[in-house]
């Protein structure tokens, strides 16, 4: 039989170990966990060129914000354990305006905060042309600054026209690091089929790349939702539909 002194010592050691375990567990929940795999780093690039008027720009902002906090999108984000997202507006060669810095979306609350940040972001420029190559280069730099390595790296370029300023996508793909990066397109098609053809031939790139289309800017939110679901689930999207 143990002496009272030895029993007390054992009890104190057990309590100390239990408190240490609780403390470590709490820290694991409070701090970012680098051991937890990141499924997706997503860069959203929104067209702010001169071809986009004020009403259309507002439809883009609201459409992206609504899509990010859509219940189906939030459920997808939760299902994969969260995603990293950043967004910017682009137009001319040197006209890129950050809307949302890198944000870790894990649930409705974090998605809603990101959505409202984007919704309230001011428009940077209104008179510049369409420099898709420069937008891609900027997006590649953004991916290089992602807070955490992720299994998939995706850039989504949204626009309603073809490149007409500076170097094009092919030059961007040679000049910047796109190793392992998928570039998708969200094209506001309108009556002209040229932008869809251009994005298909020149913009989309990498594993599983695709184009999502919106017939008009009023269809932007629905198209963005479809695109986000495909990007979040990746190759597993078909199995969850």
Q: How does the helix and strand content classify structurally?
A: alpha/beta
- N→C terminal distance: 63 Å
Query: Spatial order of the strands in the main sheet?
Result: 3-2-1-4-5-6
CATH superfamily of the largest domain: von Willebrand factor, type A domain
Q: What is the CATH architecture term of the largest domain?
A: 3-Layer(aba) Sandwich
* Average pLDDT, all residues: 88
Taken as a percent bin, the fraction of beta residues is 15-25%
Give a description of the structure.
This protein is of the alpha/beta class and 241 residues long. 46% of the residues lie in helices and 21% in strands. The protein folds into 2 domains: 1-31; 38-235, Rossmann fold, CATH 3.40.50. It has 9 helices and 6 strands; from the N terminus they run αβααββααβαβαβαα. Strands 3-2-1-4-5-6 form a 6-stranded mixed beta sheet, sandwiched between helices. Strand 4, helix 6 (169-175) and strand 5 (181-188) form a beta-alpha-beta unit. Helix 2 (54-68) runs antiparallel to helix 4 (108-119), helix 2 runs parallel beside helix 8 (220-233) and helix 3 (71-79) runs parallel beside helix 8.
Write the topology of this structure:
Elements lengths: L3 H27 L7 E10 L6 H15 L2 H9 L3 E8 L5 E10 L2 H12 L12 H13 L5 E10 L9 H7 L5 E8 L5 H10 L7 E4 L5 H14 L3 H4 L1
Parallel strand pairs: 1-2, 1-4, 4-5, 5-6
Antiparallel strand pairs: 2-3
């Amino acid at each position: 039989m143990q002496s009272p002194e030895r029993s007390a010592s054992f009890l104190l050691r057990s309590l100390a170990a239990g408190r240490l375990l609780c403390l470590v567990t709490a820290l694991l929940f409070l701090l970012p966990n680098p051991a937890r795999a990141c499924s997706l780093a997503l860069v959203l690039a929104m067209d702010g060129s001169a071809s986009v008027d004020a009403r259309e720009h507002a439809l883009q902002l609201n459409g992206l914000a609504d899509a990010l906090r859509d219940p189906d999108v939030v459920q997808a984000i939760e299902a994969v354990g969260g995603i990293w997202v950043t967004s910017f507006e682009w137009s001319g060669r040197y006209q890129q305006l950050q809307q949302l810095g890198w944000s870790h979306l894990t649930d409705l609350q974090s998605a809603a905060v990101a959505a409202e940040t984007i919704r309230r972001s001011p428009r940077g420029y209104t008179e510049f042309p369409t420099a898709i190559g420069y937008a891609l280069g900027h997006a590649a730099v953004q991916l290089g600054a992602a807070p955490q390595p992720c299994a998939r790296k995706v850039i989504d370029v949204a626009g309603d026209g073809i490149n007409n300023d500076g170097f094009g996508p092919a030059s961007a793909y040679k000049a910047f690091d796109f190793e392992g990066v998928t570039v998708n397109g969200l094209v506001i098609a309108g009556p002209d089929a040229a932008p869809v053809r251009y994005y298909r031939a020149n913009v989309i790139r990498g594993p599983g790349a695709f184009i999502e289309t919106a017939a008009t800017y009023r269809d932007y939110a629905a198209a963005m939702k479809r695109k986000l679901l495909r990007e979040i689930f990746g190759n597993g999207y078909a199995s969850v539909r």
